[in-house]
Structure formats: C-alpha cells, structure tokens
Write a structure and sequence with these properties.
12-stranded parallel beta sheet, Spore Coat Polysaccharide Biosynthesis Protein SpsA, Chain A, alpha/beta, 8-stranded parallel beta sheet, 34% strand, UDP N-Acetylglucosamine Acyltransferase, domain 1
C-alpha cells in the first residue's frame, strides 16, 4: 500500500499565514500539519507520495532531511488544476492500492488505527457529520455505500466528504475520464462519483475530531484541540521560583520563565523564548521559538517564532505570524460590543465565523507601534508598519504603512 498526500494548494483563504509557506506546513504543537499525517502512516505503507506545488521547496527541504525521508517521494503539480489533477500527478509512483488525503487536514491521532482497520475490510471514502454541509461536498449514500457527492449545493446537517479515502490503482482510470468542472479543474469529487457509479465504495464515518484548515479560525480550533487533548506536560527550560504553573504546560529547551508570572495550561511554549516577568499565559496559548512575552497577556492564541509582546499588550484568540513586534500597549480586540458572531472578510467575501470571540491574524514581519489596537476579525498582511495610536478596523494589505487614528 502507498499513501498520497495532496499538498500543492496555495491556501489563499489563509492569507497572510501562507505568504511564506504552503498551508500543509502550518505548525501544530511544533510540527507541520502534514507531519501529523505522515507519522501514523509511515510504518503502514511502502511509499509516501507528496504532491507539491506552490512553495514546493518548503515541503521538500523539510522532509528531505527528516526521519521519514527513506519512504517519501515528491511529485509536482505545476499548474493548479484541481484536486483530481493533483492526484493524477502521483499515478506513476503508486504501485497498487493506496490512501489519499489532503495535506491541510488535521485528525485526532486515534482515528488512524480505525482507518487502517477499515482498509482491511475494503475500499472506502471517509465522511464527517457536520451541522451545515453547505460549505463542503455532501455525501449521499445508500446502505453505507457512496451514491454521489453533491458539491456545495445542499444545506443542513449531514455527512461531508473529507477526501480521505482508500482506493485501488484502477481509480486513476476514473480520474482520467473525469471532465473539467465549471471552474475549469479536474475535481476529485467528480472522480469519486464516476468511480462509485461502476464500483462499490463504502462510506466510513469519522466519529473523532477532524478539521479542514481552510481559514485562520480553523487553525485556532485545531490549536485548541491539540493543546487540550495532545499536549505533553513537560518542562525542559528554566522556570524561576515564584512562577505559578497550573495545568498541562510544555516549555522547550533554553526557554526562561521569569518571576513573577502565571501560566494556566494547557499551553505550549517553544525553545529559547523569554516569558515574563509579569506575563499571564492563559489556556490554549501556543508560543513558538525565540519569542518574548513580557508584562503582557496571551490567551487562546498562536504566536509564531521571533515575535514579541514585551510591554502591556493583550493577544486574544488571534494568530500572530513570525517576527511580529507589539509596541508598548498594542492590543488585539476579540469581542463585539453587541455580542454577535464575528464576520471576517476574505477576498471580498464575508464569512460568518460562528465565533463570538475572535481576534485578528497578523502577517509576518509586521510592526505595531505604541498603543495600536486591531479590531476583532481583521486581517493584517505581512511586512506592514502601523504607527502609534492607530485603531485598525479594516483589513490591511501586505507592505502597507498606516498613519492616523482610524484606518
């Protein structure tokens, strides 16, 4: 058996997180999403085929020097022509029956033993029950067998297609017969429908946690799940006397936590960071390597490497990319006064996140001046400079310089 991981997409809805690496390389508890997939499959398959595309070198460089390199091969999707087209690029490397999975999906690790058991029973497509199928492909089945997938046309509760499947090599014949979708792409969904019209494909319902990381709030959801369910309680760095640590907390090598300081787990702090004095790190905070959080508060947030919130800042329900600096008093807002769910605008389209608490996402290399405030649900691009006292209430494009009071 082989494993094919589709990791060629750009991830435009995850801008600006994906400015510097593809979405499959977004990190959870210190590892890329795609590594959380590779790890359980490594001992079960003969070959792992990774379909790369946008920013392919980031994936290739990382895994070419990893412990998994002996089984991994890379194939390139040179043009973005859909998920089915991406899978076709792997045909020559697949020798027989194979698993296929999206590289930007996150699974509760306990799922994989169930997947391997199901594969011994026959070919299958994995589905997940959700409250609203409208944003996904809805599965229509009969006697637990796939009849068809309706792509983003239904609504209400139902089972959706996760693109995780166990298939025979002959599935590539269905792919080759699949025509272009209205978007001009070869869709894996259409190939599943074609295959199911001539063959039996069992539906396996995933009862455990799964998330398709398409938006930055999905990334926060995955981070919360991983912190709560998967985090190791381990302190490798130095924690000064007078620091209060409660709950599960991981602290990496070379990190110094200065007193007085309070950490309420679950929380993850990477290597060579400085926390405190007077820092308050709250639940589901994920702080990577070489960061400095001084007399500031971080809660339910992702703070990537080399970022700093040294003086009187608040980072709540937010994603902060690499090398972001918070000037003294710079803050993120995460709650509307009217208590309504937070709307995020991406590429001109508004999305209801369903969340009442959601801060901004701030791109890499962005600098916030003293007393900057960024409103909830806003997107600030990479390499942005925001001068002191600015209140940001709209999205900000990459490389912009903001002055004034309200922008």
């Amino acid at each position: 058996m082989d494993l094919v991981i589709l990791a060629a997409g750009k991830g435009t809805r995850l801008w600006p997180i994906t400015n510097h690496y593809p979405k499959s390389m977004i990190r959870v508890l210190g590892k890329p999403l795609i590594e959380w997939i590779i790890t359980p499959f490594y001992s079960k398959v003969e070959k792992i085929v990774i379909v790369v595309g946008v920013q392919k070198e980031k994936v290739i460089d990382y895994f070419s020097s990893s412990q998994f390199k002996e089984k991994i091969v890379f194939v390139e999707q040179k043009e973005q022509k859909g998920t089915g087209h991406a899978l076709l690029q792997a045909e020559s490397e697949v020798s027989g029956d194979f698993f296929v999975v999206n590289g930007d999906n996150f699974f509760d690790p306990i799922i994989f033993e169930k997947i391997f058991y199901q594969s011994r029973q026959g070919f299958f497509l994995a589905g997940k029950k959700v409250k609203d199928v409208s944003a996904f492909g809805a599965i229509v089945s009969e006697n637990e067998l796939l009849k068809k997938i309706v792509e983003k046309g239904s609504s209400g509760e139902g089972l959706i297609n996760t693109n995780l499947a166990f298939l025979p090599k002959t599935f590539f014949n269905s792919l080759k017969k699949t025509g272009l979708s209205p978007r001009g792409e070869i869709e894996l969904t259409d190939a599943f429908n074609s295959f199911a019209s001539e063959n039996t494909l069992k539906i396996m319902e995933l009862a455990d946690y799964w998330n398709d990381v398409g938006f930055y709030w999905n990334y926060l959801e995955v981070n919360s799940f991983a912190c709560e369910k998967m985090l190791k309680n381990e302190i490798r760095g130095q924690v000064e006397e007078g620091v209060i640590v409660k709950g599960k907390v991981f602290i990496g090598e070379g990190t110094l936590v200065k007193a007085p300081c309070r950490i309420e787990g679950p929380a993850y702090i990477g290597k060579n960071s400085v926390i405190g004095p007077h820092a308050f790190i709250r639940k589901n905070s994920y702080i990577e390597d070489e960061c400095h959080v001084g007399s500031s508060e971080v809660k339910d947030s992702i703070v990537m490497s080399y970022s700093n919130a040294a003086h009187f800042s608040y980072v709540g329900d937010s994603v902060v990319c690499e090398d972001v600096n918070f000037g003294a008093g710079a803050k993120t807002a995460n709650l509307r006064f009217d208590g309504k769910t937070i709307i995020v605008k991406i590429n001109g389209k508004e999305y209801d996140t369903g969340r009442k608490k959601l801060g901004p996402v701030i791109g890499a290399n962005t600098k916030l001046g003293v007393d900057v405030c960024i409103s909830c649900g806003k997107i600030v691009g990479s390499d942005v400079k925001i001068y002191p006292n600015v209140f940001v209430k709209e999205n900000v494009l990459d490389n912009e310089v903001l002055r004034g009071e309200f922008v």
